[in-house]
Amino acid sequence: MQKKSKIIIISIAAALVLVVGVFTAISLIGSSEAPVVQAGTSEQLSLGQKFLIDLEYEKAVAEFNAVIEIEPKNVDAYIGLADAYIGMGDENKAIETLEKGLVAIKEGYDELSDEDKKIVDEKIEKIEKKIEELKPKPIEIFSNEIPADCKSLVIISSNIENYDSYDDAEEYIKEEVEWFKEDLDIDIEQSFVVENAMFNPKELEKIALLEQLEVLEIAGFNLSKENISVIGEMKQLKHLELHCSALYDISGLSGLVNLDFLQLGYNNIRDISALSGMTKLEFLGLGYNNISDISALSGMTKLEYLALSYTNISDISALSDMTNMNELYLYSTNISDISALSGMTKLEYLSLASNNISDISALSGMTKLETLNLSNNNISDISALSGMTQLKVLELSGNNPKDLSALSGMTEMRALSVSDTTASNYDTIYIYDISALSGMTKLRMLNIGDTQVSDISPLENCKDLECLFLYDTNVSDLSPLADMQKLDTVITTNCYITNCPDNISTSNPSYYEWDLSEYID
After folding, report:
1. Which residue in 96, 259, 377, 500 has the fewest CB atoms around it within 10 Å?
2. What is the architecture, at CATH level 2, of domain 370-521?
């Protein structure tokens, strides 16, 4: 009887082994991600290392992942997996893997005994050392250590204030850093500013090693054609500023077709044909250069910002298809025909000051304009402005509009100047009636100096007025200003004032200066 029992037990054990074997085989067949060999993790680690040596990185990844699945805190598996990703050319994935391993290993650390903590600390140190090895080493640029993963770099000369209207370079630098924080989708920790640097062309070669650099600004140095060629090899750049750099030849930049922001203002550039392929540009600054031909810009239909002030251009037909334009600066050029601007109905800011413009009918559809500068032209008909109800700032000084009725619906106006109508030596001065301004209840600054105005009663409802220029007018009665509690500046030079409320203080300077932009909310 005892012998029979032993036979039964052996038979049952054999059956169990057979069932387990079948189940394992089925599991292996059904799992496409299972390692090639089912063995202990030490054997799988060895197999993973063999695949690394044989450059079979995908198989190595499978083995190391299998080990991590079984032992989530296996340091060698994470390091092996990272090495496999490095072999596949993905260093970022390698670092990500190691950082994930650190998190896993540190889990429950506080509950460990001191003895176990020492063991875990060794594992942590091993992974952290590997991460440090993988991270690119910093590059020394102008005696500053710049991390290899730097994405934005600003290099400013101490002479920058000689070009831009900044009190000093330090203020400029602070503004640049704030701009990076607010407007660029780049971590400020990856943005670096180098100030007061002495320029050395070799430094550019170091900058070219920053493979992740997307934003580069160099300002206040004299850059040569050779320097520009080095910058032109940085194909990954999206944002480039080279203003105040004495540039004259920019042909080396022609390959930077991924740029969406380019600032080349305050240079000596004449030929901009190198820019013709930069159709991704949304921002382009070319002001204060010797440019006369802008035909290279004709394909830049994505442009939202364009600055061409203080250039020698006279033909702007190349701008005719730029319907996405939001800000356009054409101050002090040689233009007289602005018909090419008629399709720019998205414009919010437009400066056409100090040109030879007389016909502004092309502006009639620009109902989104908030700031418009037409000063110092030859404009007498302003009827095209009648639909611009969103205007907050309007500069018409140095023109001679026949009447101001087109301004009657502009209830958002904050600052308005229609002064100096004698600046262009007109035979007849038309501005004498300002009744169209009566609805401008948000008006904070008004300049009607050097006009034929005598009656300012239409301003009675403009309770927010802070500054009023009345110089060289026929105004004598200031009683309509009696209830204006915010009014602190009234210029009445060459006026004969007979009635002035007690709360109104006037002044008579010999020189007048104003900035309408100060009065925008």
Report:
1. 96
2. Alpha-Beta Horseshoe (3.80)
